[in-house]
Amino acid sequence: MVDAPILLAEEQSDQRTGLGYAMVAIAATLFAVNGSVSKVVLSSGLSSLELTQIRNTCAALLFFSFLVLFARQRLRVGRRELAFLVAFGLIGVALVQWLYFVALEHLPVGVALLIEFTAPLFVAVFARFAYREHIRRRIWVAVALVLTGLGLVVEIWSGVAFDTVGVTAAFGGALALSAYLLMAERERRHRDAASLSFYGFLFATLLWAVVQPLWEFPWSTLDDRVSLQGNLSEYTAPVWALVAFIVLIGTMVTFTLLTGALRHISATKASIVASLEPVVATVIAWAWLGETLGTTQLIGGAIVIGGILLAQSAR
What we know:
The protein is mostly helical.
């Protein structure tokens, strides 16, 4: 007979795992909506760098205010931890967002996210060769599927159907996202989601402040109104309201959910569920922005997602 404490522990473990999956699924859906909102904002005149800068700066200030009011002790940082947090902010936060916005400027939302979400494949490969985790041979089948699918998506036989800058930025974003998942998974053993997110956005903000001082930011653009484009082109919205959505919902809520989920499930499992994002984003971009993909590209996208899922099952 199985002891009651063991059954209780297993039930609690299942609940935590289920909570982790739910948190990532919600984050992926909100990230998908954020992609189309960001695409609209980038048409207002704000550059990818400027949108990244205001997103990071506002998120850092809001996270700091929350921690000061409700959890000031979580702001403490040890000397050994500081270097890690700096790297996390520069690579895992700043580069992920900037490269994503660059990709959005040059690619359809679905294609940009599809390429960026090859990150789970990189996570699995890194786990195999850096962490020496056992990964089945099917990982190489997954690699072949992903490469084949991406070839169909970008129509490589025609010399790449999409902008080279956008494709390069999306792949760079995939590598940065892999780093974010692995670094967040490691640090979540020692730090809560809110403070980890704060320090990530803080050091990202400092980087962009050096690259582009805040007094050079085009603040007047925030007062402009911009067309919502596509099937909503008859409507307009103030840029500041769309930016507020990106900061509050598309950044603070989503990053907190994603980072918090890593306390309940591994980076590998989180990246599997996060693969929902390019699927949901493609549907939203079609319904809202009128972006469409050809049959070959849709087939390629399905093959990529299949390869990603296979890669994760191999870990």
